[in-house]
Amino acid sequence: MSGNFLTIPGDDPIQRRSRSSSLTDLISAFDNKAQAHTELQKITAFSGSFDKNLKPTFSKDEYGKPIPGSKTEYRGAEAQARVCTEMKELCEIINEYGKSPCKSLLPPELKDATKVISFGELIHIINLHLIYNILFQIYTVISDKLVGILLRTRKHQLTFFEGEVLFQKRDDDVPVFLMQPIGDIRAYCDNKALQARRSVSPMPN
C-alpha cells in the first residue's frame, strides 16, 4: 500500500489546513474565555478564587450593572419585562372592575383619570360617594406583589393614589385612579417590555 496511512483518501491539503485553522481558532477562543472567567473570579467576592488585593474598576455607567452579555443581565431584562406585563394586567383589572370617576368632583391633576377603584373591601369612597369592589379580592391572577406593582404603575404615571404606600385595612378607602386610556396603557407596557428584551443579547449558553 502506497502513501501515508494517516492521509484520508481524497483529502485536499487546503481543506486540511482549513480544518486545522478552525480547530486552532476554537481552542484559542476557549482559552480566552477561560482566562476571562478566571480573572473575573478573582474580583468576585463570593467566589473561591477571590483576591482581596485586587480591586475592580468601573466607569460611572458600568457601576451597579451586570456584565454585558451575562446571564445576570439577561435575567434582569426578563424580570423587567415581566414587571411591565404585570403592570398592564393590573391596569386591565382596574379598567374592567373600576368605575368612571365623577370628573366634577376631581381635583385638576386627576381630570385625566379614566377609571377608579377602591383599595379595600366594599369601602365607601368619601370624595366620590360610591362603593367599589375590593381590589385585593379581584387581584388574584397577577401575583402577590400588589402594592409593589401599584407603586410601579404610579411611577410610570399609569395610576394615581395618595400616600407613600398602601396597607390593607388601614387604607381600604383610598381610591386608585387609572390615569390613561387602557389602549394607551397596553401599548406603553408592551413597548417597555419589548425594549427590555431588546436591550440584551439572546440568552447566553
Automatic annotation (TrEMBL):
GO terms for molecular function: actin binding. InterPro entries: Abra, Costars_dom, Costars_sf. GO terms for biological process: positive regulation of Rho protein signal transduction; positive regulation of transcription by RNA polymerase II. GO terms for cellular component: sarcomere. It comes from Danaus plexippus plexippus. Residues 81-179 form the Costars domain. This is Costars domain-containing protein.
